[in-house]
């Protein structure tokens, strides 16, 4: 009877233990956030550094597009846990953040390369001809005309890749990659819902925040889009006023 009374007196863990969050923020939560940002940022930076020149070359030499698309598509279809398992067995990589970063880079290549090529393809041919007629070299046309006009499509690819990477990075904790996934896996092991929810909510918030920042970056780097929108906004009242006068 005493044992039954002791068991009945045990309280089930609360869904959210706010005291645990406040007490462990500096020791567990903040390092997990920093680690997740590190994994995601480094992976996207490396993938973009590979994808931009590759996409430019493919846009010039179309015969290279199918094999590159096949290889990157093949990497993208490998399940994340399977790819992690393969990488940790490779000498020199092993368990840890390096294997996670390599996997995240591999998953980002297909998205980024396709969007770089699509962005360059979206530049009107007459615009390139006009730039060439003004005496611009091929290098100047690329950096002053094609890449700026392709920027919205390229950043759209970066947004998709970033959200994908932030999500997959949580699984990287399974091979000691760190990040917010560590809170989720530790919470599952301890049957502690607070850690699970904290890791999941912060990973979601991080993905949303990164997406918003990239949208703002696109607007900052595309001033002509803002001026075009403001011109349309000014033209609408004028048109309505003219219609009222008639």
Key descriptive features of the protein:
246 residues, mainly alpha, MetI-like fold, 10 helices, 82% helix, 0% strand, elongated, disordered C terminus
The best one-word shape is: elongated
Distance between termini? 92 Å
Strand content: under 5%
Q: Cα-atom Rg, whole angstroms?
A: 25 Å
CATH topology: MetI-like fold
Number of structural units classed as domains: 1
- The secondary-structure element order is HHHHHHHHHH
Classified in CATH, the superfamily is MetI-like
Largest sheet: none
Number of strand elements = 0
Can you tell me about this structure?
The protein has helices spanning 2-9, 18-60, 65-77, 80-88, 97-121, 125-133, 138-169, 181-190, 193-221, 223-245. With 246 residues, it is an all-alpha fold. The protein has one domain: MetI-like (MetI-like fold), CATH 1.10.3720.10. The termini are far apart. Mean pLDDT is 87; it is low at 6-10 and 242-246.
Summarize the structure.
The chain has 246 residues and is mostly helical. The chain has helices spanning 2-9, 18-60, 65-77, 80-88, 97-121, 125-133, 138-169, 181-190, 193-221, 223-245.
Topology:
Blueprint: H1 2-9, H2 18-60, H3 65-77, H4 80-88, H5 97-121, H6 125-133, H7 138-169, H8 181-190, H9 193-221, H10 223-245
Helix pairs in contact: 2-5, 2-7, 2-9, 3-5, 4-5, 5-7, 6-7, 7-9, 8-9
